[in-house]
Amino acid sequence: MKSKRHHIISTSVRGALHKAKNLPCQDYYCTKCSGNKIVAIVSDGAGSAKYGKIGAKTVCETLCDILINSNLKNIRKNVVKAINIAREKLIFHRCNHCKTEEELINFSATVVGTFYCNGQGIFFHIGDGAGIAFSQGKYKDFIISEPENGAYSCETYFYTMPDWKSSLRFTSYKDVNRIVLMTDGITGFVFAQNTNKIRQNFLIPIAEYLDNEKNTKKAVNALYNTLDDYKAQHLNPDDKTILWIQLP
């Protein structure tokens, strides 16, 4: 999608593991723009959750709908409000047959999102995946919302957990012109040395290509093909979502 002020490119790719099992991509993303405000969310529906894609879609759309009417002063309380509403939607969802909070485990999903307005922004984050903000070409100087795993590397946190508020993190940023959100299927390609450094051979070529490609359709196709490449799928068979925001 494209607006007069911002250039936003995003795509999701079904992972090789889901392809082999004939399962759908469990990732989801959503963006909304209004004036100088941008809301963008990516979510990774847990592969172990029967309705992970529904959980991911619900939280992305709910956050976008509510936060686009927010401001930086109230953004933290409105993020909490939106996630509570998303959880309520899932309690009464037709796939929640018992209509109980305990059944939210079947909709488990992470949240990586951002709210941006007039030169300032904030990441909000539950679980793995990552968000980064930087200025064009300055790949060594970035602000990151880091992945958060549990006691084991294969564990993470979800907004559907009873104690989800304890896992909700906020990271502020300003004076940047590039923002990237990604699910866990991407983070291993982007970072080296425990997220302290951006790898040279993945995000940087993508960033430089997207900086110069003004045709949105071509940019989306190129990004999709990069994520769906045999080597990328072989290195990480998980679903992959990336959302790129180029600010003026």
Give a brief outline of the structure:
The protein is an alpha+beta fold. The protein has helices at residues 16-20, 52-67, 75-91, 184-190, 203-212, 216-227, 230-235, and strands spanning 7-13, 27-34, 37-44, 111-117, 120-126, 130-134, 143-145, 169-174, 178-182, 191-192, 197-198, 240-246. Helix 2 runs antiparallel to helix 3.
Give structural notes.
By secondary structure, this protein is α+β, with helices and mostly antiparallel strands. The protein has one domain (7-246): PPM-type phosphatase domain (Phosphatase 2c, domain 1, 4-Layer Sandwich). Helix content is 29%, strand content 27%. It contains 7 helices and 12 strands. The chain has helices at 16-20, 52-67, 75-91, 184-190, 203-212, 216-227, 230-235; strands at residues 7-13, 27-34, 37-44, 111-117, 120-126, 130-134, 143-145, 169-174, 178-182, 191-192, 197-198, 240-246. The strands form 3 sheets. The protein has a 5-stranded antiparallel sheet with strand order 1-12-9-6-7. Strand 10 and strand 11 form a beta hairpin. The longest helix has 17 residues, at 75-91. The chain starts with 6 loop residues before the first strand and ends with a strand.
